[in-house]
């Protein structure tokens, strides 16, 4: 009887654990190779409702926000066990099913205080919480066909290390921030000691495009919280309560801009941003640096080195100030930014207004190559950067001092930094110069890096397109299925393969494509396996990311005329009819 009693107790404990911390069977696994390095790829099985933020916590757990579920989930990084840590639906003051178009992002960014387990048990989250009524100014009477107005707030919860739960109530760092169905940004990051400031990205609300075409773009207005990086105290300071400014205690007294009415400091830290969904602090060669990744329009996605008080140009300049957007030239598709004519030179505007140039652009497009509105978004020279992280470990060879940029179109890019972190290094990554692609075919929303340095964790959108309002709760504009959608993708480094001279092309049986002759002089044949979704998009890029040749075909075989292409090394990209990348191959033109 005693033995039965013990067995019953053990069985009961296991049943309780299964309820508190669900442990699913591990998902599919494969070995993948990118840039001569092998990785083990697992897709963990737990299905989430549009995960938006993933953070590796000091408790060796993955902390994840679910943007449409308004839930914070914790997951074991090894066995994939999970539990709901906090349901935030009670903080939401609107019903998603009753609004015209849902916000782009619901529960968005999350940041853990660096001293979470040692005296500062704070968890910061950003969420869209309210929908403006159909009357008043502004209002949502035209949401569905026109502009949509929401409200966003940043909250601070307290984590109970004993019960491993978040507090019922939260402190409000700021509320009534503008919100939209497009370009809400929403990323949070905490700065270094001793101040541990909280940084938050807020987009330009999609002003000047799609439903928000007639909305004023305020990214250059240093009195409006749109198109900015904001900075807050992680703990309230001693400023007196102010009825007209109830969040004054959360705003640092040395922030660069002040309210013209009250004289109090504003939360604005930098301005001139379009939609910076990536934000990370990094210690580079002993110096603390804040990096962002930012969505461009039809080209010129940006990676920026964020500095206090600086202007990053949008919507007056896109990417580098190289005049690729201008109504002063003869090209038809580059005349406007945010629905306003660019009747000036970008380089002159940048000098006159002391703009800060991007650290890097993914990818710079010549004026003649900028696509018309309404064209296939996968032909635009953008990667749709959704987040950014810094890899400082020496575990994966060649990766130390790199920025990792996730993409809603092409998985992830690794950008190797110069030693000081102020430039991307174009000299020491010969395979693909400075942009090394990984996980193409995945719509990656965010990533986290394990402290061991050998494992990366990604989250993928459940579904989605890459341009326009994709946050609608009704799923409008977001019907495309995605690889690993709504799940955690785990990538574990295995080994670096020995270097060898590449073959002219892979055997046809081992590849989707056959490219020959390589090297080429006057023509290049591209042969694909039958059955790949058409039309195929064939693109040839030079080593600076400039597109040299582009064509589409509904055939399995095509011959490209490269007789007028300058001698050198190029990269040929083939995408299928779904817009997913089929292959990237190095090509030499003699």
TrEMBL record:
<dbReference type="InterPro" id="IPR026444">
    <property type="entry name" value="Secre_tail"/>
</dbReference>
<protein>
    <submittedName>
        <fullName>PQQ-dependent sugar dehydrogenase</fullName>
    </submittedName>
</protein>
<feature type="signal peptide">
    <location>
        <begin position="1"/>
        <end position="27"/>
    </location>
</feature>
<feature type="domain" description="Glucose/Sorbosone dehydrogenase">
    <location>
        <begin position="49"/>
        <end position="319"/>
    </location>
</feature>
<dbReference type="Pfam" id="PF07995">
    <property type="entry name" value="GSDH"/>
</dbReference>
<dbReference type="Pfam" id="PF18962">
    <property type="entry name" value="Por_Secre_tail"/>
</dbReference>
<dbReference type="InterPro" id="IPR012938">
    <property type="entry name" value="Glc/Sorbosone_DH"/>
</dbReference>
<keyword id="KW-0732">Signal</keyword>
<feature type="domain" description="Secretion system C-terminal sorting">
    <location>
        <begin position="515"/>
        <end position="589"/>
    </location>
</feature>
């Amino acid at each position: 009887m005693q033995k039965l009693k013990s067995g019953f107790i053990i069985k009961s404990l296991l049943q309780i654990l299964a309820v508190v911390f669900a442990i699913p069977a591990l998902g599919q696994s494969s070995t993948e190779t990118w840039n001569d390095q092998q990785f083990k790829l697992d897709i963990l099985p737990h299905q989430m409702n549009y995960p938006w933020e993933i953070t590796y916590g000091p408790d060796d757990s993955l902390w994840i926000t679910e943007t449409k579920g308004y839930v914070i989930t914790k997951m074991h990084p090894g066995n994939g066990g999970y539990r709901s840590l906090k349901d935030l639906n009670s903080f939401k003051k609107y019903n998603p099913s009753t609004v015209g178009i849902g916000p782009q992002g619901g529960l968005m960014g999350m940041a853990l205080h660096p001293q979470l387990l040692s005296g500062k048990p704070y968890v910061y989250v950003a969420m869209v919480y309210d929908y403006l009524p159909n009357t008043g100014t502004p209002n949502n009477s035209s949401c569905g066909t026109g502009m949509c107005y929401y409200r966003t707030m940043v909250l601070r919860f307290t984590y109970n290390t004993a019960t491993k739960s978040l507090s019922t109530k939260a402190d409000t760092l700021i509320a009534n921030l503008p919100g939209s169905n497009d370009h809400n940004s929403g990323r949070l990051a905490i700065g270094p000691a001793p101040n541990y400031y909280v940084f938050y990205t807020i987009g330009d609300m999609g002003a000047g495009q799609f439903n928000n075409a007639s909305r004023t773009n305020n990214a250059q207005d240093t009195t409006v919280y749109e198109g900015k990086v904001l900075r807050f105290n992680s703990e309230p300071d001693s400023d007196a309560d102010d009825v007209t400014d109830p969040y004054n205690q959360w705003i640092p007294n040395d922030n660069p801009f002040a309210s013209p009415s009250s004289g109090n400091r504003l939360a604005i830290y930098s301005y001139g941003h379009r939609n910076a969904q990536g934000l990370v602090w990094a210690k580079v060669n002993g110096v603390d640096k804040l990096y962002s990744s930012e969505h461009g329009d039809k080209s010129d996605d940006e990676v920026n080195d964020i500095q206090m008080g600086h202007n990053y140009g949008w919507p007056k300049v896109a990417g580098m100030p190289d005049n690729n957007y201008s109504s002063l030239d003869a090209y038809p598709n580059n005349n406007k930014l945010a629905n306003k004519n660019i009747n000036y030179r970008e380089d002159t505007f940048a000098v006159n207004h002391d703009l800060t140039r991007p650290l890097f652009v993914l990818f710079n497009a010549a004026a003649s190559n900028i696509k018309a509105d309404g064209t296939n978004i996968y032909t635009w020279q953008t990667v749709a950067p959704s987040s950014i992280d810094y890899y400082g470990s020496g575990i994966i060879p060649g990766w130390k001092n790199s920025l990792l940029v996730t993409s809603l179109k092409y998985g992830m890019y690794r950008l190797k930094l110069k030693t000081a972190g102020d430039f991307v290094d174009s000299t020491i990554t010969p395979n693909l110069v400075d942009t090394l692609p990984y996980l193409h075919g995945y719509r990656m929303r965010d990533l986290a890096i394990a402290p061991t340095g050998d494992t990366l964790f990604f989250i993928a959108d459940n579904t989605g397109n890459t341009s326009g309002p994709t946050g609608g709760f009704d799923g409008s504009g977001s019907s495309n299925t995605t690889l690993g959608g709504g799940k955690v993708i785990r990538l574990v480094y295995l080994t670096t393969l020995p270097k060898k001279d590449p073959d002219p092309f892979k055997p046809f049986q081992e590849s989707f494509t056959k490219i020959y002759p390589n090297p080429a002089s006057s023509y290049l044949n591209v042969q694909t396996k039958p059955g790949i979704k058409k039309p195929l998009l064939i693109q040839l890029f030079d080593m600076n990311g400039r597109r040299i040749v582009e064509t589409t075909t509904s055939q399995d075989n095509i011959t490209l005329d490269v007789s007028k292409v300058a001698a050198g090394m190029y990269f040929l990209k083939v995408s299928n009819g779904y817009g997913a990348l089929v292959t990237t191959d190095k090509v030499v033109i003699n």
